[in-house]
Design a protein that fits this description.
Layout lengths: L4 H15 L9 H7 L3 H11 L5 H13 L5 H6 L2 H8 L5 H14 L11 H5 L6 H11 L9 H11 L5 H11 L4 H17 L20
Helix pairs in contact: 1-12, 3-7, 3-9, 6-7, 10-12
This protein binds a DNA duplex through helix 4, helix 7, helix 9, helix 10 and helix 12.
Length: 217
DNA sequence: CCCCAGGCCGCGC
DNA sequence: GCGCGGCATGGG
């Protein structure tokens, strides 16, 4: 297996040069300043809403929550589930997601608990799977868990010829990268951007910035 | 009309 | 442990 640390870092550096810093996770700091709420709660809420859903639709749901001044754990908890469903409807799976928002808001309140909650405890919350847990730990908790998603799996399979389970791939990234929070955040964001721009289902290899590093021409 | 999007759960095996 | 159906909106 061609899994050298330097090759993975070279992919990272090349994507960073090609696309620039992504600065994930996107949050509306102005909103939270005005409301006196914690921006980390928007990250957790967004992580639930974006499950198998285009970010554009998530933004509509987040906008609805903002206009209702409910983009916070307290807002989620005090809103009747029917009303919550209505607000998040554009993000799809709105019945499931309304329940999941209630669950995470309850268990992660106060949001400062993400600094010390275990990954296993997060996974015990109904509606929080591995990717959501790692996204919360990394982007809201600033802790070194590499996030694997469908885009990441596709790129790793093509570039390195490696397939694996979620945990297998997460270990592979964490074993082959320096334990650097900023790097983890930026790399995951860059992989998603790359999957959207070039490494689509039908890849555009001819203009791909890392085609010289890829096993699949 | 089709397929897809920053997954997860519950089930059968 | 793995594979599958269900969940739902909005865009291409």
């Amino acid at each position: 297996m061609r899994s050298s640390r330097s090759e993975l870092l070279e992919v990272y550096e090349t994507l960073l040069n090609a696309y620039g810093e992504q600065n994930w996770w996107p949050v509306d700091l102005r909103y939270h300043r005005e409301m006196g709420s914690d921006p980390r709660e928007e990250i957790v809420i967004g992580a639930i809403l974006t499950q198998n859903t285009a970010w554009k639709n998530v933004e509509r749901a987040l906008d609805n929550l903002k206009r209702a001044k409910l983009l916070s754990f307290e807002g989620i908890l005090k809103t009747p589930v029917g009303k919550l469903q209505e607000l998040i409807r554009p993000s799809g799976y709105y019945r499931q997601k309304a329940e999941r928002l209630k669950n995470v808001a309850e268990f992660l309140n106060p949001v400062s608990s993400v600094e010390k909650i275990s990954r296993e405890e997060l996974l015990d919350i109904k509606g929080v799977g591995r990717e959501t847990a790692d996204a919360v730990l990394l982007y809201a908790g600033n802790r070194p868990f590499f996030v694997i998603d469908a885009y990441t799996k596709r790129i790793v399979k093509r570039v390195f010829g490696i397939e694996g389970s979620y945990e297998g791939l997460r270990r592979w990234f964490e074993d082959n990268l320096p334990k650097d929070i900023k790097l983890y955040k930026e790399f995951h964001a860059l992989l998603d951007e790359h999957a959207k721009r070039f490494c689509r289902k039908k890849p555009a290899c001819d203009k791909c910035p890392i085609n010289h590093l890829c096993t699949q021409p």
